[in-house]
Amino acid sequence: MDRTFLGLGGRTWLISAVALAVALLAPLFLLDRFNTLQFAYVWAFAIALIGLNVLTGYSGQISLGNGAFMAIGAYTTAILYYKLKVPYGWTILPAGLVAGLGGYLFGFPSLKLSGLYLALATFALALSASPVIKNFDGLTNGHEGIVLPPALDPFGFGLTNEQWLYYLALIIAILLFLFARAMLGGATGRALRAIRDSETAAAASGISVAQFKTMAFGVSAFYAGIAGSLYAIITAFVSPDSFDLPLSLSLLVGMVVGGLGTLAGPVLGAAFVVWLPIYAQQIIHNRPDVAYGAILILLMFVLPQGIVGGARQLAGWYRRRSRPEEASDEASLHAVRTGPVRDWTEAPLSGTTGPSEGGSPRS
Amino acid sequence: MALLELTDVEAAYGSVKALHGVSLPVEEGSIVALLGANGAGKTTTLRAISGTVRKTGGNVLFDDRVINLRSPEDVARMGIAHVPEGRGTLAQLTVWENLKMGAYVRRDGAGVKRDFDRMVGYFPWLGRRRDQVAVTLSGGEQQMLAIARALMLRPRVMLLDEPSLGLAPLVVRDIYRIIETINREEKTTILLVEQNARTALGVAHRAYVIEVGRIAVEGSASDLANQESIRKSYLGY
Amino acid sequence: MQGVVQQIVSGLATGGVYASLALALVLIYRSMEALNFAQGEMAMFSTFIAWELISVVHLNYYAAFAITIAVSIAGGFLIERVVIRPVEKAPPLTVVLVTLGLFFVVNGLAGLIWSYVIKPFPGPPGFPQAPISVGGVTVGLQDLFLIVMTVVLLGILYAFFQFTKLGLAMRAAALYPETSRLLGVRTSQMLGLGWGLAAGVGAVSGMLIAPIEFLDPNMMQPVLLYAFAAAVLGGVENPVGAVVGGFLVGVLLALIGTYVPGARDLRLAFGLVIIVAVLIVRPGGLLGRAHLARV
Lengths: 363, 237, 295
What we know:
- The structure holds three protein chains of three kinds.
- Chain A has helices at 11-29, 33-58, 66-84, 88-111, 116-135, 137-140, 161-185, 187-197, 199-204, 209-235, 245-258, 265-284, 288-302, 306-322, 324-334, and strands spanning 146-147, 237-238.
- By secondary structure, chain A is an all-alpha fold.
- Chain A has a two-stranded antiparallel ribbon with strand order 1-2.
- In chain A, helix 1 (11-29) runs antiparallel to helix 7, helix 3 packs across helix 10 (209-235) and helix 7 (161-185) runs antiparallel to helix 10 (209-235).
- Chain A is globular.
- Chain C is built from eleven helices and two strands; from the N terminus they run H-H-H-H-E-E-H-H-H-H-H-H-H.
- Chain C has helices at 2-32, 39-56, 61-84, 92-114, 141-163, 165-175, 177-182, 187-213, 220-234, 239-259, 267-281; strands at residues 132-134, 137-139.
- A two-stranded antiparallel sheet of chain C has the order 1-2.
- Chains in contact: A-B, A-C, B-C.
């Protein structure tokens, strides 16, 4: 996962250009109103997944609670409109910033947590989001939610409501994607990856681990906030029930299905998350959770290296394919490590039994 | 026929091969010493027998049956007790609990009780300190506990991985005296892995030297001990 | 003063429920160093089974209680074999995600089978409704029952692990899996048993809280959060800690809910705060080691 994740080289450039052209023209010629709206959701979710990618795929921190940051973004937008009558377009960036700040602040206590305990803390975060929203009902209108006006095309292009929302979400997604690419392509990306691979080695190389990890949380929350804001604008309604645990689960599933470390990953994952409930409706009667849960379980069976390990494998394959000299850079960075690469997100080394356990309670 | 026999056994850790064809018979009732330098494959050989390392070739035969694919639990239930490197004491459990776990697979309660008394006979302190947590024992005591625990299985074969490791010479002498006694009284077959060749050759009947995953020298223990050239080249003394 | 003691007793009662679920969490954590995010949903499912037995099959409460526990133990064992075993050797994060998936599968299944309509669930019959007076404080008998049940549960588990051969083997297998295999212990089965026991304990937790909170598929989610808080507070490796933590969390929440204005609905958020605060300040919990091994 390096330049080639968000990189465009040679053939990839051509494919991306074609895909982009299709995406731009689709609502005008290919999609009906319903599907246009669905794709608007897809772009919004893809933004959230890019953010999650930065957090988990790049800095190696798990979050089961990014749904809470989406909630912050959505409610920032809704409240700015509801209380201050701010036009929705101006609320998007603030929503992202507020959520990003929240994520950044959450990143501090998270420094001390890792692995299992970070998963637990973010799980608790996801569980508490909805009740907190309901509690401050003076601000959030509690369980009744806030209704927003439909977002109309302000430039008079003659687009339908759905088409405008589609383009709004798509343009923002493209901008944020480029921003992420720029940020991750250089030293920041290398630093994050070094931290993911081995914090001790990264610290030994002079990288300020704390700074980058909290920044990663902030960035992923920022992206989630923007996604939440767009979600609110597209749906024209927010309520605490939209931001309960299943939302965070769907982000997780989207991240795993889409895969970390690829250009198309967040989009594929988002498409999966948006369309599964629709197709599953016949079988599961409006409980897509069962399908998400089952898929998540099955995916875990199939990924022996865990999520991050799988991403690393994929990244390595990309790297070797397009930039052989990059691979040797990575190798020299890895030479700093003192032990085999092993963190809690990776499978244990196979074929060995460790040293015997007598004498020390638990290694 | 040898009670336990390895023929051309190959084993690997992941993709790294550690044994390149080890052949080693262990006659019933004998003490066999497996000697060699660090990393030569001694521990891996024991692991190949107990099933805790992946075998990529060859056969392990116990009582004329091939046991290559048996899980460690099954190998233990067949009567092969493996005392691993570092003793494998169940550190946070008490002495008594360690011994009880040694007899885990046994169904004869009365026999277990008798054996426990016999262990106290070999190591009187086991009775006095049965409620002491194992991690607080000294190295020598932990080794004795590990051996006693292995004996609680009533094994036909005992695999001992470096029993002298980290112990003072006097303690080592005591341990080896016990090993000899066990072999004599209980008729337990013992396969003994050691870096400390001299001590091991003092009790063994037969000895094998392993080098880089293969058997380099074999013979009766006295032969190996008496031939200066072998001692110098392979055993370091 | 009377009011505070009342609240404390009531807090101890709900705390007992949290403690029981926390016990289940600790059981599994000790077996495989992973957290079972689906523990609450499994408990909820067990409670629905009890409901079926009582309301549809018309069994008496105690028979249904016992049968539910037995079924849950078997169910927990099965779940471990089918869903967890394939990822036994995978990194802990993978196991966590599997339990998360399980969370949703179980929740959705319960919703499909029994719908989301709230149902009443009976408490143990034969308890007079009128509260009794102990030292000048009126205490509900049902509350006492909860507290006593929790302590009894802890006692049973303690006796099992300390004094039975199987309990000893499970402890050995959890702490020293490789060495235990050399002693003939089928560690995989021990893991399944651990899950079974945890499911049984969880079932108790669900059946104890259902009369208070009413039965619906989402009933155990707050309980799960508080149980995590309890387990973390007491020390996630320590069963006694889980129980102590449970009672503490229960009392804290009861006091906060009554005496801090406007905080009633924020109690879930307090659960979050407890979890994060304890993990930062003293990850081993009150009764655990000061610093846990980095998982």
